[in-house]
């Protein structure tokens, strides 16, 4: 088998694993969105199920990242842009960590605190924006195998979402500092929204990395 054919096969495998990674992250982000709703409604069973699914998704993403690392290591120098692929995989893995951290904080905030200042609505809006950004990343990963040039347009959409999250995050933090007297809940809300903003930043980093990959193809 020619080296060129081996490289094509290695590329296809790596992109398939990368797409699987992002798909798991997207599902976990949707669970995070459902989690905030179930917490407010007091449906403890659904809350627990969402937490378990997010934990499992995070573990699956880590396993996929390790699988990709092994496969790329085995291909050696066959894949010229292997560092870009690995960088993207590690960024996606970071996003999984943000999701579980945010979920932990949300699950420990008093429902009364969330409802009183309508922080539940603020947080849901922020989470939904990040879910949209991850959906765009999913489309970008799929486009790498079909039409790499379209990733540039999608990257611009991710950047726009990240800016919206950043603006909303600042407003919610100021609102929390002014309206939440309980120190514990204040810290949890602040940490949760900071986590969402950090997750949006990692989505931006993943978008940039996917764009570099597209330009390498």
Summary, kept brief:
The protein has 217 residues and is mostly helical.
The CATH superfamily title: Phosphate transport system protein phou homolog 2, domain 2
User: Which sheet architecture does the biggest sheet show?
Assistant: none
Approximately how much beta-strand content do the residues carry?
A: under 5%
H and E string: HHHHHHH
What is the domain tally?
A: 1
**Global geometry:** elongated
Structural class: mainly alpha
Taking the alpha carbons of the first and last residues, their distance comes to 21 Å
Percent of residues in helices: over 70%
Q: Average pLDDT, to the nearest integer?
A: 86
Which residues sit in consecutive blocks of at least 5 with pLDDT less than 50? none
